[in-house]
Amino acid sequence: MQPRVTAILVAPGGATTLDKTLDGLSRQTRPPEALVVVDAGGPDSPAGRLALSGAAQLTSVPAGTSLGRAVTHALRVLGPATESLDDWIWILGDDNAPEPQALAELMGTAEVSPSVAVAGPKLMRFDEPRVIAEFGETMTRFGASLALVTGELDQAQHDVQADVLGVAAGGMLVRRHVWEALGGFDPGLPHVDASLDFSTRARLAGHRVVLVPSARVLSQGHPEDFGRTEGGHARRSRLRREAQLHRRLVYSSPLALPFHWLSLVPLAFLRSIWHLLAKNPGAVGGEFATAFRAAFGRTGVAGARVALRRSKKVGWGAIRPLRADLQQLRERRVNDRDARLALVEDAAVPRASFVAGGGLWVTLFAAVVGVIAFFRLLKSPAVTGGGLLPLDATPGSLWHSVGNGWHEIGTGFVGPSDPFTGVLAVFGSITFWSPSTSIVLFYFLALPLSAIGAWFAIRRVTTRTWVPAIGALVYSVSPPILAALHTGHLGAAVTFVTLPFLVLALSSAHRSWSAGATASLLFAVVAASTPVLIPALVIGWLGAIATRPRGTHRMLGVPIPAIALFVPLAVAQFGRGTWWALLADPGVPSRTTPASALQLALGSAETGLNGWTRLVAGVGVTGETMAVIIVLAMLPLGILAIVSVFLPTRGRALAALAVALLGYATAVLATHVQITGVGSTTTSIWAGSGLTLYFAGLVGAASITLDRIPRFSPPVGLLFAIVGVAASIPLLVATMLGTTLIQPSSGRILSAYVTAEAQVKPEVGTLVLTPQPDGSLGVSLQRGSGETLDDQSTLDSTRQSLNATSRDLTVLAGNLVSRSGYDPRADLRELGIGFVLLSQTDDGGAGDALGTRASGALDGNGLFLPVGDTTSGQLWRYTDATETLPSHQPDGALRPIVLIVWGIVFGSALLLAIPTAPRRRRARSGPVEAELPATTFDEERDD
């Protein structure tokens, strides 16, 4: 009997290639005996307007019906099958346009091989008919589906393939009785892998599945999704994983099924980590969704297992040779890597070399300057003074200060830590044997690290080989970084070092998940170190998105780690009505003398023009005269920066100048915001944080000018470098002479006597009394061996009112420094105070007078035993100190929640930031290879 073929054409919604597919069907040299068009597009679909004649029929199904259900519906329309085994159905989609010989070739293979039940054509791309869209399917050992051939130019290199595990749905020819015996496509696989699963079940039922390379069918979009191209890579990953889990549960043995079910959610966690490493974050959400759906949703696994058990006639060993082996997977990975490398082969613009271009020498110069400037810190385990204190003694204590919990500072409180505490914990973990040493190490590395970052950042926007070296030299020894190190503003120094790397990462974030994740981590570091720069950072981030909108999806997550860091602190500050306190400087509160707007423009964060006024005072030069000289010295930098906007690279210049303007505006506004308490007064935010951004923008704009001006650029660059380095001479001299606020430290905060006592009684309290210049008294309570840098909290330094315990503490201190009949024993016992420390003062005014009176009052109080003078001041011991001291308060229920959220956010960002994709090879400056003479017959090279 003549084989009978019924073509079933399914047209989903949005079909745009239906006419071409129908035209291909009409030109078949071996036409099908019948045609059923299934309209799955809903109202007003193209298929619904067809006028068919003869053996063709038109039927409809609800919009969104899967391919398998549509085919089953078409077979019901056709009526019962005949008794002949030569009744075939040919499955096509609206975007499967067959070539004239397609059906004839498929049937020719089927007629000569009675064991063939499923035959598949070679699917070619609709827009590139010579490129293979898909040719055969298989699965790995773990059940992941894999196309045997895809995206290759068809040169008949794969025409030897015949028996395969599976074929694509588009163009599939299948015996009707096999289709009905197997129940058609699995309803649990509505989108992906339905044809692979059906082919596998046909194999297990004892039939053959073959490819017919001479049968060619054009296909548009992803064949496994049957022409539906909506959604992106994340959607396809989710559908593939959902199908894989469904098949795993269906194919597994009864004994292995419980273990597969229990592994669904744990595997989702592990695979999510892999997706982040593979720079595929969009697949993470789908990974968990599919795992929970497979574990707890209605997936039809039970019915599919029953159908498989009913039709299965051979064991799984029969299809093992058809599965993908390690060699195939290895070849696929190599081909994919080569394809990615071809996309990022070379950069169009040559770039400078770090060694040949002078980057290494500038870095070495900055390192030498750093060693000479801070040589007196070389043998010290810690640094103190200004905004600095030693860190805690162990990394465990450092990390315990991170997050929400109990803070010992002051009278103690439960609340969130400053985000900068996390930066300090990372610092201290680097030199875990002595955490405070990491700060000393940073002092020596800050200048060379900033030089490296500036060199690479400037190289990104310039082409001349010597320009990055000049810019990096000026940036690395500029006043903002030296002033920050002098005054102990560690956060500002960290920001200065980090900014160039942030610019580098942010400039590539639009095209790389790794760069975007790196930018998010650096963004969080800068925000935590200098909160006053958060508005400028947000504006810069929005500007980066606006200039590269095509990469918005990769850049949207840049602020997420910083947001996660600041949310607990923001909730606390907003709760007490001091939202502006979020911008306060982290670290030890210290007084600053804000500079004027002109002095800020000249790069001086405080009055004194970065030490020039003091340096030249001995030779009779007034401050006004020095200001004029500094203005003239800053002219090269300012002129070069302004000229940049008139050059062809105007876009980059405007971006650099916008950064400078944001930094200067931040510095000016910082001098008008007084929120941090220091003793009896408040002080403004340190303006040097804004100046780091200001100088970064100016140096960047000036470097762009040097890269573009045609003549006299080397002499101008030399002048730029000389003036830039000269501007920092007073700061370097002050550092070498030891006249700065920071000093080397042994790592001990309080006296050795108190520290020894703290070894036995870690909670012993020391009441620290500090006479203020205005005659008032500063009071603080320190536990154990004293406050450390990681103990500091802006929640305490920006407090607007005293709590009950703090008020009792001030009353106690006031009575101790005056002669009265007040009995302090109850308060001393309640607060656990064992020592009283009177800090030294040398202002020669009201503070000294108060210190003298306080010393006399404490000496005359029989409750206190004088210990003597220490490096911190005069010390007394409370003779009746109790052995039972206050213990640590609980950290609160929020602490684990905060730490878990931070762990997820930063862990994900770290995994994404690890580079795994092929790196772009930088083009080097020099002659173009295409312009060089041919070397085909070069005897030396042939050897």
From TrEMBL:
UniProt-listed Pfam families: Glyco_tranf_2_3
Transmembrane segments: 359-378, 439-458, 464-483, 521-544, 556-575, 626-647, 654-673, 685-706, 718-742, 893-914
Region spans: Disordered: 922-943
Keywords from the UniProt entry: Membrane, Transmembrane, Transmembrane helix
InterPro entries per UniProt: Glycosyltransf_2, Nucleotide-diphossugar_trans
Name of the featured protein: GT2 family glycosyltransferase
Lineage of source species: Bacteria, Bacillati, Actinomycetota, Actinomycetes, Micrococcales
